[in-house]
Amino acid sequence: QDQFVESGGGLVQPGGSLRLSCATSTSIFQRNIMGWYRQAPGKQRELVALIGFGDTTNYADSVKGRFTISRDNAKNTVYLQMNGLRPDDTGVYYCNTPTESLSWGQGTQVTVSS
Whose C-alpha in 4, 47, 50, 55 is 20 to 30 A from the C-alpha of 105? Predict the structure, then answer.
């Protein structure tokens, strides 16, 4: 059983928006900082955004001002609102936590192309 279930990806034109969702278990969600990661074709997985307790956030320079990470504590869900998408945002997006060694989910594919 996947510990993280990502959804919301799709094909979008440059400049468009998508909202990704990631559901996980209560135990994982409530004890961890949560993050969104992505892996572009032929590249290593990279950290995109983090959200801690008290809603402190941190972003990769490449997405600052365009992406917003948030968490819904009642639903054990993390979101990534992506605006102003660019072709180099294309990749598979995953959520996980940097504070434990947990297996990766299936991810959700984001393709930005005209």
Answer: 55
CB 70 within 8 A of CB 20: no
Question: Within its chain, how far is the Cα of 77 from the centroid?
Answer: 11
Q: What is the helix (H) or strand (E) element at residue 26, kind and residue range?
A: helix 26-31
Q: Helix and strand tally (H, E) in the chain? A: 1, 10
Contact 105, 5 (CB under 8 A): yes
Beta carbons within 10 angstroms of residue 41's beta carbon: 7
Contacts of 64 (CB under 8 A, 6+ apart): none
Distances (CA, A) of 7 to 52, 67, 68, 80, 85: 21, 16, 16, 10, 17
**Could you tell me if 6 and 78 are in contact, meaning their C-beta atoms sit under 8 angstroms apart?**
no
Query: Each residue of 52-82: pLDDT tens digit?
Result: 988 899 999 999 999 999 999 899 999 999 9
Cβ(34)–Cβ(100) under 8 Å? no
